[in-house]
Amino acid sequence: MTGQALALVLAAAVAHAAWNALAKRAHDPLVFLWSSVSLASVGLSPLGAWAFAREGWAPGGATFVAATVAIHAVYFFALARAYAAGDLSLVYPVARGLGVALVPMVAFLFLDERPSAGGALGIALVVAGIAVVQMGGFERAPRARGRRPTGHPAHSSESGEGATRSAGLGWAILTGLTIAAYSVVDKAGVARIHPLTYISLMGIGMSAVLAPAILRRRAALAREWRTNSMAIAVASTMNLTSYLLVLFAFRLSKAGYVVAAREISIVLSVVIGSVLMREGYALARLAGATVVLGGVACVALAR
Q: From 279, 283, 295, 302, which residue has the greatest number of CB atoms within 10 Å?
């Protein structure tokens, strides 16, 4: 992996972990994500128009834009539901890790990209590290032990937590599937369209697709802007921008390497979630994050 591509991916990873942490703390993660992406789209549109006027796009580009808009709409919806049900330090690794595992296989089938031995080892270590992270259990932060409220039998609380855990895991898995899908689509898309134009159209299109769902939640939208307007503004400077860096990296390196190296953000999310947000299971999750870091190092050295 070239030094330029690695630098782009590492910068993207830091920004990505940061805006995901902000989304996790939101009152309504979907409203927060939609608001920040919509705001970012407005800011990037002039640059996208400039890039289009300068380069245009190759035949077939519109197909990839339409595909990524649809996939990203599902991605943001699933990510929001996952954060509503589970910890940042588990939702994030599960979703991102599944993408790492799937992208090289899909890229091999559709883009004819073949990872080297070092690259394959790095990808395997990333996946193994994520498996260790999951050993902490997929659930909310541990609750204080004590007597249950009167009238609430033990099995009702346990079954409720189990349902939350299953729902969170299911949404995280769906998020991971969309990550694998849009990574391969976007690798091919930016070969035909300048990344600035591509991401501008993606952001505008995704915001439009999700707008009907957001407009049905006007009260939540008003509350999110009233209480989290600064966080929305900060996130808007990082969400599409972080992925824009990844799109440029796609032009310089194999999709599987870019996606795997980007998962240094898993280490950051585990630290933010387990330590700073006190979600628990810090030892197991940090151990897994260390393995992920080793895998990223292998990918960084691969050619």
A: 295
Amino acid at 66: A
Class of residue 53 by CB neighbours under 10 A (exposed 0-12, middle 13-18, buried 19+)? exposed
Q: Which residues on neighbouring strands pair with residue 193, listed in sequence order?
A: 57
Low-confidence ranges of the chain (pLDDT < 70): 134-168, 279-280, 299-303
Give residue limits of the domains in the chain.
3-136+160-301
Length in residues, the chain: 303
Token reading at 199 = 């991401």
User: What's the whole-model pTM score?
Assistant: 0.77
Handedness of CA 59, 175, 30, 233 (dihedral sign): negative
Q: Quick one: pLDDT at residue 40?
A: 95
Alpha helix stretches (DSSP H) within the chain: 3-24, 29-55, 61-85, 88-110, 117-133, 154-189, 195-215, 218-236, 239-250, 255-262, 264-270, 282-301
Cα separation of 20 and 266, whole Å? 11
Compute the distance between CA of residue 219 and CA of residue 38 in angstroms, rounded to an integer. 18
